[in-house]
Structures are given as structure tokens and as C-alpha cells.
Protein 1
Amino acid sequence: MAGYAPRLPWLLPLLHRAVPPPWVRAACGAAGLRASTSSAGRCGALSGALSCRLLLPPGAAGSAPRALSVAAGPEPTPPPAPTAPRGAAAGPPRFDARRLLALARPERWRLTAAVGFLTVSSVITMSAPFFLGKVIDVIYTNPSNDFTDSLSSLCALLSGIFLCGAAANATRVYLMQTAGQRIVKRLRTTMFSSILKQETAFFDKTRTGELINRLSSDTALLGRSLTENLSDGLRAGAQASVGVGMMFFVSPSLAAFVLSVVPPLAVLAVIYGRYLRKLTKMTQDSLAEATQLAEERIGNIRTVRAFGQEMAEMEKYTNKVDYVLQLARKEALARAGFFGATGLSGNLIVLSVLYKGGLLMGSASMTVGELSSFLMYAFWVGISIGGLSSFYSELMKGLGAGGRLWELTERKPQLPFNEGITLGKDTFRGALEFKDVEFAYPTRPETSIFKDFSLSIPAGSVMALVGSSGTGKSTIVSLLLRLYDPIAGTITVDGFDIRQLNPLWFRTKIGTVSQEPILFSCSIAENIAYGAEDPSTVTAEEILKVAEIANAAEFIRDFPKGFDTVVGEKGILLSGGQKQRIAIARALLKNPKILLLDEATR
């Protein structure tokens, strides 16, 4: 319906009763017959027949409806999602340090402060073995002297230093965790914005569960890798570096002997990290499939129950999560082997220190205090190596998740989101024209829907498209909304190619009622207000007015909470007719220039 003007009295009965008036029914009935093609529209025949009627009100000039016959190809049912969902651009982009730094840049001051507190706490922690070794030497070299006062003072001083280290460590954890939450929030916002800006064809071939999994699970993994895990990794790295340095300071020969086990561990870590990164991506993909299955079945529980398919769906979901479990077992096996090897290396370090240190003490090359300090440093280095192993493991998991995220955030929509020209009030009248349009759905390019399709709809007119199911009626609505672009030909609005117009602006001038109207899980008033350009500015009087026009006010008042009644997910708590009338009210709210009703009056 082009050039909608609710002031026309003959149009109100159509909207008020939500069924076509007699003159519309008569015209649409006649349109079921093949009529001669007029100059107003033509289409190269594919299969099926789509008849278009330009309907005029009774008493208007030429009151007998003018008919045109348009042959059209079959309109496919919504294309099924592929088995292996891949909605992003081909080939995952390389995930490198630049992306990590760009993501963390807004939190640089918070992270810098956290690193500073980490340095303080690490220095204090790693200085403890050295001073404790000196205390032991004092005790062992002065067995007969009374050193209680000096020992008490030294212990009190060390206690104060340790308290400062604990405070610095606590501050470090707080700053890192809050920075992580802020990064995750920003990443999720960016992800959601990127998803909403993608073209409709993207959603035709990408599963909802896949997108939700990336939005929730993958962002949390990456955020944790960037902050908490990075903090633990930096702490472990700092402690390992200081520990190794102090080991060389205490005894260079013993340190060189002990650290001979590090190179094999480094090689093992690289192999393990690459394997884990690949395994993590497979796990996240499989988990997304399980999430998609659960979300779809739970959302359609009435259909599942009506056909008695509960047990079959349980088996399907069990198979999905069983595969996730298999991947988790592989990860557990790899982690067990890696951490077992690192744990063994730590114990071997301690054992080698005892062996070599005992020999050095026997030759008077090392004191008991130095050996004690060295043992404690070796112990800390062993713990730090374990921490670095955990850090590397979590980092690889985060990078695997990050690759999936950047496939979406860096994907460029094939159709513009908010680009193009806008028309002024005097220029925009709502005249629509299809000229030699050819179209096929991106998911089924081999099935042509239209070829050489032409249709003219003057401003201020009412056009009814009548035909059997699958002849392309809803496809025309999708093309007018620019959910897709035609392969060839042009669609014009007041003489302007629709591809020149700003899609976001143009859709605000269109009121739409889909074939199966979808409502959000909020109140009836909020669902109706959703049709406005700015829902927050809609008044109760405006909502009531359009509800009355759509013949919805009466049944809404019968609800205990009236317009504040929550309709449930997708409007499940309402009947089909009630949902359609609310959807009609939503479409009328902004008084659109163009009103598209896709079987909304059935």
C-alpha cells in the first residue's frame, strides 16, 4: 500500500475490521483469474501466477478495479540453516597482538596501575626468600648469642613489608578484574552492534545459537584472557624472572644446573598451545550447535510437544553435548599431560637443588642460609612455571575465541546500514516502481524468483497482490524494505533508485505487518510504541488511537492489566488474530507514507 493516508474514510474499515471490505474481496476474487497484462506491470514468466490489483474506493473514478497479471517464480520457504554455520567472511582473519592492544587501549591507565601494583607485590614476594635466608644464617652462625631483639625487629619489619605486598596484590586483582568486565562489556556491545548491522542474507545462513554463543561465551573467554589471565601470567613471568635472577645471584653454577630442564618445557608448551587453540575453536563451534538446538526446541516447545518428539529431541541434544564432551576429554588429556610434565619438572628442580646444593655445602661452597634461599627461589620458580603454563593455556583458548569474534566484528555488511540520501517532505510521496527486476535469494541463487518483473504503484493508491502460496508476494515486501537487493533491474521510490536512499531512513517511513507478526516479550503498549521512530516519546493517547483503528482496543481492555499486559516471548500468550491486530497498530503508529500488509487481514 503506497502513499498511506489514514485520513481517507474508505480505508478505515479495512484496518478497523482487519478483514477486507466487500469491494476488496470482490476485486481480489476476480484477481485469482488470469487477466490481460496492462502497461502498469509485466513480468517474464517463470512459474506460478501472481495477480496484482490496483484498488480504488467505491465511487472513485474508474471504480471497477484495474487488473494486471504478473507471472512470478516460486517464493521459497525460509532457507534452512547450513549444517556447519559460517556467517562471516570467508577465511578467518589473523588474530594478532594489534587487536589485543586495540581492545585493551581504553583501559590502559587502569591496566598500567594494575601492572605497577603487580610489580610491587612480586618484588616483595620474591625478596622474601633472600631475607629469610639471611635470618637463617644469623641463627646458625650465632647459636650462643642473644639475638632475640634483633630477630623480633627483623620479623616485624618483614611482616610490614608482606602486608604492603598483600595490599598491592589485592589492588592488582581488583583493577584487573574491573578492567576485564569493562572490556567484555565493550566487546559485547561492539559485537551486538556489528550483528544488527549485517544484511538479512547473513542471518539466512547463520544460526542464532552460533551468534548468541559468540556474544556470551566467546567474549567472556577473550575478556578473561586479556585481564585476569594476563595479570596472572605477568605475575608468574615476573616471579620466574626475578627468581631465576636471584638463583644466579646466590649460586651461578647451581642455577645453570637446575635450569637445564627449561628448554624442553618451552618446546612442549608451544606444541601444546597450538593444539589447544585449535581444539578450543572446535569446542566453541560444537557448543554453539548445541546451544542453537536447545534454543530452537525450547522456543518451539508447543510444536515439539504436539508431535510427541520430546524423547527424540533429548537424544539429539545428548548427541550434541556428547561430542562437546569428547572434545573436552581431549582437552583434559592434553592439559593433564602438559601440567603433569610441568609439575614433574618443578619437583625435579627441587630434587636437583637438594642434590647439587648438598654437594656444594659439603665442599663449603655454600652456606645453609644460601641453600635455603635457593630452595625457596627454586620453589617459586617452579610455581611460576606452572602459572605460566596455565596462562599460556588460557591465552590460547582466548585467542581461539577471539578469532571467532573478529570474524564478526570485522565483517563488512554487503548492504549499507545508515548510508545514502534522504528525501524531503515535499519530495517523498511514496510512488513505487519495479522495473525489469530479477531476483534470487542469496542462499538459493540457482532458483530465480523474478525475471524482468515490472510493477508500478502510484502514490496514494492501494495495491493488492493476490496469488497462491510461493508466488513471490512476500518477496516483493522484502525487496521494498531493502532486506535484499535485486540481481538486475531497479526499484524506485518517487523516481529515486532505492539503492541511493538511506535504508535506515527509508524504513522509518514504512509501516509493515509481516505474514507472521512477531511481538517482543514486553507489554502491549511497549510493543505498539516500538513502531515509532522514538518509542520513548509515544503517549498513551497515541497508542490507544491506533489500537482502536486496528480493532485491538476492545480485547486489550478485557485483560486485567490492559495495555500493560506482558505478551510473552514472541507474543505466545496472545492468539494469532490478537497478535496481528497489535502488529497493525504498531505499523500505523508513525503514520507511514507506505504501508505494507503481508497477509495481515486473514
Protein 2
Amino acid sequence: MATLSVIGSTSLITYAVFQNIQKSPEIRPLLYLSFSDLLLGICWLTETLLYGTSVPSKDIICYNLQAVGQIFYISSFLYTVNYIWYLCTELRMKYNQSGQSTPPLVIDYTCRVSQMAFILSSLIPLLLVTPVFCLGNASECFRNFSQSHRCILMHSPPSTMTELMPSANTSVCSALYFYGITIFLTSFLLSLLTIMVLLIQAQTLFKKFVKSTGFLGSEQWAMIHTVDQRVRLYPVAFFCCWGPAVILMIIKLIRPQDTKLHMTLYVLQALTATSQGLLNCGVYGWTQHKFHQLKEEARRDADTQTPLLCSQKRFYSRGLDSLESTPAFATSASTIL
């Protein structure tokens, strides 16, 4: 699954580069998310390769690779929130500026906030995982880290550490273990809560937007329908990928001795957590296909409409036509969709 995730992330990045849309303000957060998924997939593939080989300093490499992986999956949480936030912001701008041109100051403000969100999404995970690097290596928490499948597991229980670590370092390594689980669960739950709030806001804006603009032209409806699908499906993909890992971490804290249940959840987590790049690519490709399908259906319907109905559609969609000519809306229509 990690290989498929790498392929999916690479495909999405390659598509954006060849379509020359990588600099688009709305595609940028999605590229950051895909790049984070790509690096995370590479980390897991490297750990898998190390698991079956014998190399010098294997324990140190496995330990630090897992710490690097923590940076990337926390980054993927934040980049997912960043992308969904940008979709909601674009929709809010379209609603507030309905029938008018979007002021350059509004667009500039959105771009600045998006850039700041990217910086924070990259910096916060690095700062959170820094203690794992510094204290873990200083306390030699990497000792025997390649034993008992630990190189390919997200977190190792402190009982294993107690058996393998010197008594002087056990407390530090156990604290780092619980710290790693804490930042994972906290970052996931905060991201999920933020995504749910944004999802509710987006649905409210969709309803207001449709009601305020009256009759929607076929292409305008296709664009709004596609954005609606993306706002819904990306959170679903996010939860499906990381939900089993979160359940595993919680159960390990509540029932640390239930190894059979742990192994079942480890297998499920290995299949889902490593597939985020593939699912994100699938969501983008499917919504892109549906958008073009809706446009084709609209063109076929237009050939069978009476002149009176065509004139009514042009009248009702005149306000949206002016909205579509704004820079922010044009970006969504011509590049993302």
C-alpha cells in the first residue's frame, strides 16, 4: 500500500506540473499534501526494506526514520486542514462578492494567510518531533529498535523498552513513547474537529450560495457540485486512512496487554495509513472526471433546449458569469476543475 501511495502522490504532482497549475493558489495546498504523503510513503518503504536486511547502525536508522515519519504524518494532517480551509475560503469569497469583482486586497489577504498556514504546517510538526530526535538519541532509545518488528511499527510499547533498555534510560524513553502517542492523537483530533467545523460551514455556504444566485447555469452548477464533492470526500479519505491508527493508539493505552487485538489493528492500520496518497489522488481524479462528465451532459442538453429556455438561462446566469470572470473564481474553474 505504501508503494501505491507513492505512485498516487507522484501521479498527482506530475499531473499538476504537466498541466502547469502548480502555482495556482488553490492547487498549492493539495500539492503540499501530496508531497507530504509522498515523503511519508518513501519513509515507510525504506523501513520495510530495512526490516529484511542487515546493515550497520540499523537500530539508529530505524529509530530516526520513525521520527521523520511522525513529522510527515502530522504535516499531512495540517495540510489536509489547510486545503479544506482554502476551498471554504474560496466559496465564501464567491458568495460575498456575488455579482461583483473580487477586490485585489481580498485575494492578496487569502494568499498571505495560505502562505502562513503552509509555514506553520511545516514548522509545527518539526518542533513537536524535535524532542524525539534530541532526547531519544541522547538517551540511546534506539537500542534494539530493529528487534521484534519495531522498525515497521508506528509506536512501540514501553514494556518492550523496559526489557531492552538500560534502567537509567527507561524513564526517558517511556516518556518519549507516551509523548509520541500524545502528539499523534492530539494533532489528529484537533485536525478532525477543525475539518468538521469547516465541513459544516461549507455546507451552509453552498446552500446560501445556491439560493442567493437563483437559477444556476450548467457549468456553474458543475463547478459547485465538484467543489461540494471534494469538500466531503477529502475528510472521508482522511478519517479512513488514520482512523484505525487512532483506534490502535487508544486501545494500546487502555488495554496494553491485548496483543491479539493489537496485531489485528496493526494490520488494518498498515493497510489504511499508508494509502493516503492513493486515496487523495483517487478523490481528485474522480471529482475531475465527474466535473467533465457534468459539462458534457450540459452541452448535450443545450442542443435539445428551446430558444426561450436558453434565453432564460442566460438571463439567470448573468450574475454568475461576472463572478466567474474574477481572478479567484477563474482559478478554480480553469485550473483546479
